[in-house]
Amino acid sequence: MSADDSGEDGAGVSRRDFVKAAGSIGVIAAASNAAVDVDIDDLWTDDEHHYVGDDYGEYGASDVIHTTCGQCNTFCPIKVRLADGSGTGEYSSLVRKLAGNPYSFLNTQPFSQVPYESDPDDVAMGDVEGSGDVETDRWSVSGGRICLKGQAGIQTAFDSYRVRQPMKRVGPRGSGEWKTVSWDQVIRDIVEGDDDLGHPGLKDIWGYAPQETVMSDWEAVQNGELSKSAFDEKYADDLIDTDHPDLGPKSNQIVDVGGFRRNFIRNRLWHQGLGSINSIHHAGTCGVSSVMGNVRSHAAQKKRQYPDIENCEYLIVWGTNPMVANKGPTWLAPKLTNAIEDGMRMDVVDPRLSKTAEKADTWVPVEPGADGALALGMARWIIENDRHDLTYLQNPSQSAASDDDEPTWSDASHLVLVDEQAGPKARASDLGLVPEDADTADDFVAVDAATGEPRPASEVDTAVLDVDVTIDGTAVRSVWSQYRERVFEHTIEEYAEMAGVPAKQISEIADEFTSHGKRAAIMAYRGPAKHTNGFYNTRAIATLQHLIGNYDWKGGQITPYAGYSTMSGRYELGSVPDGHSPWGIPLLRGGVNYEDTSLFDRDDGYPAKRPWFPVAPPQATQELYGSAADEYPYGVEALFIRPYSNNHVMAIAGGDEIPAVLKDTDAIPLIVASDTVIGETSQYADYILPEPTYLERWENFGTYPNKRLADEKISQPAVSVVPDARPFEDVLIELWSELDLPGVGEDAIPDADGDLWPLEQAEDFYLKLAANIAYGRNPVADASEDELRVFRESHENGLGEQFDLDRWKAAVTDEEWEKVVTVLNRGGRFEEPTEGYDEAFAEHGHGYDYAERADGSNAYDGEHMRYKLESRVDFYSEVVPKGKHSFTGERFDPLPRVDDVEHYDGTVQAAVSGDGDRERPLRLINWKPRTQGMHRTQNSPWLRETRPENPVWINPQDAEERGIENGDDIVLDAGRKTVDAVAMVTSGIRPGVVGAMWGWGRRGDGATTETIDGETRPAVEADGHSDYQFDEPMTEEAGYAKGRDAGFAINHVQPLDEELGDTGLSDLVGGSNAQYDAFVDVERR
Amino acid sequence: MSEHTDTDAAHDEAAMATARARLYGLLAATFDGEAETTAAALDRGAFAAVAEVFPIDIETADLRGDGYDADSLAIGYDNLFAVPGTHYVPPFASAHAVDPSEAFESDSRYHTAGEAGELLGDPAAEMAQLYAAAGFSPERGDEIPDHVAACFEFMRALCEREAALLDEGGSEANLDAVRDLQARTLSRLGWIDRFEAAVASSDTVEGVFAAIARLARTFTAWDAQEVVQTDLQPSETTSSELPDQ
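The joint structure predicted for all components is written out below.
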């Protein structure tokens, strides 16, 4: 209201007259009840005091390096803001702040990323046209989102307990005493062996012979053409056991345990350089049973389940917690909350009321491990009520599916040869439908609904689902017929009883799931999977989505493994000239049937001494140490571990049994750890080599297929905190050079023209990888002169003397360098949501959903996702029944099923049908803490302040029975072990179930004393703060960090396998270590 | 915290605040489509009585008399403010904003980014922030924070609160706070000018809403300039928030 109208007149208005006139209103106006509540001394409003700070310091792109976070396995693109005064002190630079990378769509939710070509200086200062006003638009100068764990990364890099020099143990393994040694000496010791410690060197251990030569000679021995003694003599130095050549070469006894940097260390150095098949990552301790359950449910690559959140109408989050974990806090959490706000219904299946369940429409507290029953119960309701997508299921092939605008199709109508061992699916030529050389000979077979005749699937438009017939004397049965029979083995009430979920609720969820067409989806991960029946649970859940055929549809299940090429293009980084081919039985016995090996006869058939994982990758990490101790299938001579991401003592169920093996120098003669700190696992090594943290080294982390667009992240060194730390790649290059192994040194990496490039340091590899990324699809723009300057200045600021620009430039061609700089200045490549994005962004700003609304979306293709699975999905897996249980010899099941939780020998740990009276009746589950990334982040006092220990959640019903109140000190009795803990009484956990966060109870990394060069460092007490008052969980009023040893280690109260006795239980089909199957009791202390 | 000592002055101020609250309440009810209240006020001549205090050109003839029944007012209201059509005048600020809310995060189909005129644009966010600061949840205005009815309802509540503080001898700080909020709110009602002009050109048949809008515009301008500003104790946090004049 301008004052002009009332202007001069207004001054003449009499207040008294006004009050009088208004008096007549008093009896009329029916005032609403809404009132204000202003009783505060100092009024504030949001835009002034909350959410948006407007006080910021000036800095530019030369103070910023974009890289990737390594605090948890989400691997967010981040922005490292280097502190002023770089290049002083022992470290090259301090870090002022870590934030999200605004170039990446992963860290700018719910906004849109800045256009890829935006000038780094504009991005640093928030000056990109369209990115709005810092003071009013919630667009922070610091860039994109980062979570609390990510921010605490500064304390990972600058942890005073970092390993600063190569160290060699003093006294026996695990004595806690170390002396520092030079890099030269440690390299020499590892290569040549060391008499002091009495360990052999790699020169003594390594041996290799190619598989073709060995096995052809072995065949000659069998045929009597070559004497066994001649064979023995020929291969004595190369093979592990000349009586069992299938174990492979001696190089297999040199074992790598890492996790990341797989392309470099596993593929190049271990497999092709060393010729060892044994490079192991974290899969067994992680969700590999979930991954395999998904892999066996889809013909094309699909390891994980994710919805197209923006368009999903109904989402079931199943045993995962995306508000906190599973690529959650920065990426999924804002998307989920926005979708809920926009009307998406989300239900959460979890025994615990997780942060995600708190946001759910319905929380479904399933009985742990009974997820398969819940899923099959839902399937039964769906089928009984004809709510499955019949049109979708009757498409037997891509061509039939295409006619219905379906990018995927299922095997429901495919026929299975039921009388054959392992029940393969019939091919057209098997049934004599076409000649063996016909194009359709390998087609699956379906019965054409139009003619009633069996035909090659590609020739059938609409197939019959229920088939159980004999064709020319061959019994066949459709997949659907078998799946349906499996589903109908139990009534919904029986499934409800097993799952501990009311039958009515099962029907309700199934009804909702099938009420949104293709716009319903499931996101599942560890919860159902980390049991010995985890593979089958995942299969049951995955196949629910086959029933509605939601793949590749907007709002349905998405699978965009979209990225830019990393390993090939300009350089063939996976190619090693004259490299070795690794072969033999993997130490962890994945991908091999026990009965197909020579050990089967040696050991008198079933049962095998330890479990085999015939249809899973050889990554059942939990088997590593017991196998080494048992020398089964062979011994480990040298173990190289990188426990920053594979701290097995803490991460494996039953990991408390590992130190006994590690301490035994007979079991493993040489142990080398490359670690940032003296951790729970590395403390038993012969040598600990100082490893740079993720802020100080190279890496190329992948992104999970939960995004609509393509991206490729690259980590680069941003600071150098420990001058003598060396990335393990560099150490291995030196070791391999000493051993004269292929893949390193001169002429190691071929480019696209076949010219060879040297590999002498990590950057020789990663800068070429950046070049591949830069040229993938359409090449990125060249960096301008300004950008080249910014690159040089920022790296000089961050890395100080460690940065050698000329050396970096020499790793690629001059032409490539300018594009490499473009990629490095942005921390990777990130696809834009639409064509012409920079102009659109300038016009519409960052608060606009371009993928959804703009023309030329790169995310969608009409009603479909642009990046598609586009394949068959499988109710029935042909692969799974090829595998046999190595204790019983029984084939695994091709279909989803409900299964008990069992030990290796079949002893039931938890029956799906329920257990009678147990001595310890409470099922113990665990979960990732909101405030910790991994065990490794416990070094951060910031994070320990937010949650200083892991209380045991217990339902009030169970607490009352035991006289326990919130905050009571309790003893948790797991049978083989008891631990002290604190009770947190909450209705947010299912009765009969207790649980706690993992990540606590550390004994390394400053949690206990360390002695180096005769000087003893005490354990961290409480980081200089006063004692933390943690009497009542969730009611604390102030946060003080406890010591690094606070809380208890959840994996150390897990049951040991009854047959093995040295590790936790395993899922033999999927490969996971069971981590939610302990039974405990608790009582007040 | 000091108590008021001059009780007479406080009493006058309280009476003034109550009077303002009443008029804001009546305007809120009217622009919320509460036709019976509007009809009763017209019947009793309440609008006309207030309008006559302001020596400006308001067609008070349209504001008095018993010629208006609630039903016809409801139809008139719907035609003007509820049903999009030839006579439609959106009763919320975002639609009358001059600058587009490009930066406001909105997938709303009403939002044509880059152009002014939308639902739930920046003005809505600003009003919502003010409500949040005062712990206020508007009951009027169809859950549109910058709806004229919600804005007036908020002013009604603030004025009531001011009156109560004066009557009860509340703390200076609280009184400052509530007056500060009134100033901030009024400073965001500049769009009423454009709203009033739009109603004037759309409500050409009966003219009652045009006249009430005219009254609303005049009253809020007067309130901002003469009452809130002059009575407000200047403080560093509030003076800069007053509207440019």
